[in-house]
C-alpha cells in the first residue's frame, strides 16, 4: 500500500493530538536516544525533538513519500526508509515511539517483546493505535466493499489491518518483559467542517487506502459515493454543517 503525505497532513492537528498525549505519559527519564517508528511526515518526530532537547532523535517509515516529507520538515534529523517488522537495529533506545502505525504491522505477540528488547533499562515503548474497527466509519468500509461489483477485488482489504487485541492481551504480551505497563483508551471527538465529506477525506489518508487502491479510478468514485452516503446516515450533520467524529484510540506505555 502506498501512503500520501499530503493526504495524511490534511488533518494534521487532529492526528497529532494523540501523539502529544502519548508523549506526555512517558516516564520522565534522561532521554539520550529516541526513535519514531512509522514517523509519517514527521509531525510526531517534531514533538520528540522539542521534548527531548539534546537527544539523538531519528525516524523511520516504510513510505518514501512520507520520509521525503519528514526530511523537508526536519532536515537536521536522520530519517530512514524501513519496514518496522524488518527493522533489525539492536539499540539500545531510551524511547521507541509508535504513533498510529502498529495497527498495520502483523504478529504483535512477537513484535512488541522484540521492540522492548531494543530499549535501554528504564526506557519506554510508547504506542497508540486507532481502536475503531467497530465504529460506523470502518463497518461501512467493509459493508460497501462486500456488496458492490468490486467485492472480489476487495475480499482481502479488511485483513490488511492487524487484528486488534484486548487491552488485557497487550498487557500480558508486555508485562513479563517490563517493569511497568500502562494501558488506557481515549475517545476523541473531532469536529470536522464539511460534514460527511470531511470524514471521507480523513479516512482516505488512512483506513480507506486498502479499499481504494485495488480499484480503478471509476470504481473509486462509485465506492466513495456509496461510502459517503452511509457516513451521512451514521453521522448526521450538526446545525452548522459540521460532523463530530468519535475516534477511540488505545494507548500503551511499556517501560523496561
From TrEMBL:
Keywords: Methyltransferase, Transferase. GO terms for biological process: methylation. Gene3D superfamilies: S-adenosyl-L-methionine-dependent methyltransferases, Vaccinia Virus protein VP39. The keyword Methyltransferase applies. The keyword Transferase applies. Its EC number is 2.1.1.144. It holds the Pfam family Methyltransf_23. One of its GO terms (molecular function) is trans-aconitate 2-methyltransferase activity. Transmembrane segments: none annotated. Coiled coil: none annotated. PANTHER family: TRANS-ACONITATE 2-METHYLTRANSFERASE, TRANS-ACONITATE 2-METHYLTRANSFERASE-RELATED. NCBIfam families: PRK01683.1. This is Trans-aconitate 2-methyltransferase. The gene is tam_1.
Amino acid at each position: 500500500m502506498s501512503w500520501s503525505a499530503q493526504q495524511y497532513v490534511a488533518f494534521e492537528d487532529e492526528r497529532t493530538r494523540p501523539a502529544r498525549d502519548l508523549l506526555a505519559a512517558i516516564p520522565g527519564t534522561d532521554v539520550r536516544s529516541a526513535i519514531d517508528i512509522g514517523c509519517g511526515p514527521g509531525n510526531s518526530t517534531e514533538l520528540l525533538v522539542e521534548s527531548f532537547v539534546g537527544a539523538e532523535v531519528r525516524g523511520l517509515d516504510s513510505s518514501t513519500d512520507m520520509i521525503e516529507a519528514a526530511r523537508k520538515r526536519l532536515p537536521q534529523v536522520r530519517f530512514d526508509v524501513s519496514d518496522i517488522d524488518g527493522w533489525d537495529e539492536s539499540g539500545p533506545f531510551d524511547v521507541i515511539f509508535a504513533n498510529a502505525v502498529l495497527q498495520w504491522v502483523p504478529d504483535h505477540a512477537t513484535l512488541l517483546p522484540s521492540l522492548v528488547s531494543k530499549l535501554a533499562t528504564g526506557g519506554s515503548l510508547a504506542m497508540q493505535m486507532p481502536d475503531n474497527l467497530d465504529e460506523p466509519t470502518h463497518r461501512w468500509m467493509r459493508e460497501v466493499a462486500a456488496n458492490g461489483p468490486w467485492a472480489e477485488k476487495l475480499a482481502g482489504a479488511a485483513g490488511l489491518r492487524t487484528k486488534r487485541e484486548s487491552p488485557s492481551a497487550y498487557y500480558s504480551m508486555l508485562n513479563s518483559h517490563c517493569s511497568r505497563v500502562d494501558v488506557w483508551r481515549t475517545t476523541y471527538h473531532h469536529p470536522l467542517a464539511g460534514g460527511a465529506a470531511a470524514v471521507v477525506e480523513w479516512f482516505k489518508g488512512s483506513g480507506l487506502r486498502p479499499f481504494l487502491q485495488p480499484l480503478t479510478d471509476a470504481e473509486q468514485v462509485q465506492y466513495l459515493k456509496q461510502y459517503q452516503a452511509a457516513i451521512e446516515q451514521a453521522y448526521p450533520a450538526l446545525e452548522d454543517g459540521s460532523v463530530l467524529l468519535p475516534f477511540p484510540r488505545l494507548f500503551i506505555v511499556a517501560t523496561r
